[in-house]
Design goal:
Elements (H helix, E strand, L loop, with lengths): L4 H36 L5 H18 L4 H15 L1
Helix pairs in contact: 1-2, 2-3
Length: 83
């Protein structure tokens, strides 16, 4: 445990950010899995599920969780599977 006041604050802030990032990543992974399953099963609402997954990817990219090229690759793969 740090002794310096600013270092103590950094520990608290990093902990909060880690929890936020973890929640966003988990939500993203769930959306991607749902989209893959919908496309694989040829579900009737697969376009909506893929669109929702793409939105989650964009949100993660905006928040800095994903690199922009990683987000672009994920979106491209989803579009390719759908098409």
């Amino acid at each position: 445990m740090p002794n310096i006041k600013s270092a103590k604050k950094r520990v608290k802030v990093i902990e909060k950010k880690t929890l936020r990032n973890k929640a966003i990543k988990s939500d993203l992974k769930t959306a991607l899995k749902k989209a893959d399953a919908a496309v694989a099963n040829n579900a009737s609402d697969k376009e909506q599920v893929v669109r929702a997954a793409i939105k989650k990817v964009d949100m993660a990219c905006t928040k800095g969780i994903l690199h922009k090229n990683n987000a672009a690759r994920k979106k491209s793969q989803l579009a390719k599977k759908l098409g």
